[in-house]
Write a structure and sequence with these properties.
Number of helices: 13
Bound molecules: pyridoxal-5'-phosphate
Strand order of the largest sheet: 4-14-13-12-9-5-8
Radius of gyration: 22 Å
Helix content: 25-40%
Largest sheet: 7 strands, mixed
């Protein structure tokens, strides 16, 4: 580790960044506001590791917040990107590679008959909602507290004072009128779900949910809750939208919906929103689903949606190379094995030091809480001990282990995380838990 008397280059960069970029960052959670301290400016990354401006190495459990499922600098991905870049950065005209990526996504997620490519998860989620409203001719949507669907106006909303009232904006700049059609419910709360559909069912265009919520750390929808969401949408003619921007091709090759389909025969959402892994680290996302619904999109139908860089040739090359690697036999089993080893190892390390702790994982995604039991909704997640989390975060960071700088974020393991990386992480965690328990 670098002597503390050195000029800290991260501090210097942050001071410079703050003068020209609001808060010094281009996405708020990068600013370390929740945990304090200076964000690390990343100079380069390879495999499971990143190096900051000081040359300090970290084992990376953020993976660009999910996309880097192969780790950084995978040779097949780099080669595909280099080749595509040499052929042209953007055309604004269709390319064969867009068809290839669409076919690849549809083969992995069979509930989708058709898919449209866009550039960010926010854009994909916003477009899926517009499509659902256009296809149903209805305005109201249901979302759940703690689920994030990007920063489109209508989705920056928290629960109102009761089920008869709709949501309140969570951001300045979002007029109350814009969220007046968004009903916010508690995740995994069956009684509330039933009541909301009884009150508003025939006005609801769509219910949008993260099937495994990764934006309140890691909270699974129960099988019963999932089944009821599907039944109530079907009964009332609302569309069920799965926001799999984080879970898509991450918790399983077939995404979270394939995990639920194991328990609920024939289970499928009407629309699915994808991003992160399907772009492999380039700006690429998608939304797709039932053919009759997707055919409502322009230029076939009346629902407008467009994008100058949609289906970008370099981004599609990156996504395609990534998906072709992760579907190779054994990739996902090995990824799930490493992730489980990490989650179980962390639990064991915490238990050995008497630190209240719970962890869960699926495929290459994990979450943990400084709580004795796994939470089932946002209110329970928020009972996690923030001060202790910050100690844990900084303890790990100082030992070269980089987890998400906020307790409501999930973690990610990549195919490049070796046994040695996991062992080093668990050794660091044991030291930190020991310091927490005194
Ligand atoms: C990351 C994320 C988004 C937003 O995607 P961006 O590419 O950041 O706009 C939407 N939904 C979920 C579930 C996400 O995790």
């Amino acid at each position: 580790m670098k002597p503390s008397t050195d000029l800290d280059l991260n501090d210097a960069l942050m001071a410079r960044a703050r003068r020209v970029i609001p808060g010094g960052v281009n996405s708020p959670v990068r600013a370390f506001r929740a945990v304090g301290g200076t964000p690390r400016f990343i100079a380069r990354a390879q495999g499971a590791h990143m190096w900051d401006a000081n040359g300090q190495r970290y084992i990376d459990y953020i993976g660009s917040w999910g996309p880097m499922i192969l780790g950084h600098g995978h040779p097949a991905v780099l080669e595909a990107v280099r080749r595509a870049a040499a052929e042209g950065l953007s055309f604004g005209a269709p390319t064969e590679r867009e068809i290839e990526l669409a076919e690849e996504i549809l083969s992995l997620v069979p509930s989708m008959d058709m898919v449209r490519l866009v550039s960010s998860g926010t854009e994909a989620g916003m477009s899926a909602i517009r499509l659902a409203r256009g296809a149903t001719g209805r305005s109201k949507i249901i979302k759940f507290e703690g689920c994030y669907h990007g920063h489109a106006d209508a989705l920056l909303v928290k629960a109102g004072s009761g089920l008869a009232t709709f949501g309140n904006p969570t951001s300045a700049g979002v007029p109350a009128e814009v969220v007046q059609h968004t009903l916010v419910l508690e995740y995994n709360n069956l009684a509330q779900l039933e009541e909301a559909f009884a009150l508003h069912g025939d006005d609801i265009a769509a219910l949008i949910m993260e099937p495994i919520a990764g934006n309140m750390n890691f909270v699974r929808a129960t099988v019963e809750f999932t089944r009821r969401c599907r039944e109530l949408c079907t009964r009332h003619g609302a569309l069920l939208i799965y926001d799999e921007v984080m879970t898509g091709c991450r918790v399983a090759l077939g995404s979270a919906q394939s995990v639920y389909a194991r328990h609920i025969p024939g289970f499928a959402p009407d629309l699915t929103v994808m991003g992160k892994v399907i772009g492999g680290g380039m700006p690429l996302a998608a939304f797709g689903g039932r053919r009759d619904v997707m055919e409502q999109l322009a230029p076939l139908g009346p629902v407008y949606q467009a994008g100058t860089l949609s289906g970008n040739p370099v981004a599609t090359a990156c996504g395609l190379a990534t998906l072709r690697e992760i579907r190779k036999p054994g990739f996902f089993d090995a990824l799930a094995h490493q992730t489980r080893r990490l989650a179980e190892g962390l639990s064991a390390a915490a238990a050995a030091e008497g630190v209240p702790f719970s962890a869960d994982c699926e495929g290459g995604m994990f979450g943990f809480f400084l709580l004795p039991e796994l939470p089932r909704n946002y209110a329970q997640v928020m009972k996690s001990d923030g001060a202790r989390f910050n100690q844990l975060f900084h303890g790990l960071l100082a030992r070269g282990v980089y987890i998400a700088p906020a307790l409501y974020e999930a973690g990610f393991v990549s195919g490049a995380h070796s046994d040695e990386d996991i062992d080093a992480t668990l050794a660091a965690a044991r030291e930190v838990f020991r310091s927490l328990s005194i």
